[in-house]
Amino acid sequence: MTQKAITTTVVYHSGYGHTQRVAEAVANGASGTLIAIDAEGNIPESAWQTLHAADAIVFGSPTYMGGPSWQFKKFADDSSKPWFGEQWKDKIFGGFTNSATLNGDKLNTLQYFVLLAGQHGGIWVSLAIKPSNVKASKRDDPNRIGSYIGAMAQSDADAAPEEMSLGDLETARRYGARIAEVAGRFAATRTV
């Protein structure tokens, strides 16, 4: 018996291009597809079908003023239609965020994503990468920020997206791979 290919969809908003780079890294690790939330908080109508068909959904947003961007929140509100029909129930979920400071209250954004996944009846995947927290740790080491529930990235406010920490991007890539792996294990246990 052959197992079907796992589909992972990364739905994200990026204000300045930094969060888009994190989204691309997650999608790369998961061999997933990207859905960008536009500046008005919308996604194409066809993207909803992509989300409904996905085995795993990964949420992404910059952290602005202690939470996700209003554009992401609009998408979350619009997801009440699939919520009502339980279309995302038992899907695998993950999430990531980026801000200009090391803390920047990014945890609040990830917790928002966990709650949104829970409202949809989803199953959350943790990061599972130990933090780089010793004196020898460098900026480009994986999980240098020390997150556990999802991927966090930090981009200096005056830095271009190309100047992002390679460690943050590697953390995101590994997280995407983990999400796809968990989705595959979960799919293998389902009965038709």
Description:
It is a single chain. The protein is of the alpha/beta class. It has 6 helices and 7 strands, in the order βαβαββααβαββα. The chain has helices spanning 18-30, 45-53, 70-78, 80-84, 106-119, 166-189, and strands at 8-12, 33-36, 56-64, 67-68, 92-99, 123-124, 151-154. Strands 1, 2, 3, 4, 5, 6 and 7 form a 7-stranded mixed beta sheet that branches. The longest helix is centred in the last third of the chain and has 24 residues, at 166-189. The two termini are 13 Å apart.
Short account of what is shown:
This protein is an alpha/beta fold and 192 residues long. It has helices at residues 18-30, 45-53, 70-78, 80-84, 106-119, 166-189; strands at residues 8-12, 33-36, 56-64, 67-68, 92-99, 123-124, 151-154. Helix 1 (18-30) crosses helix 6.
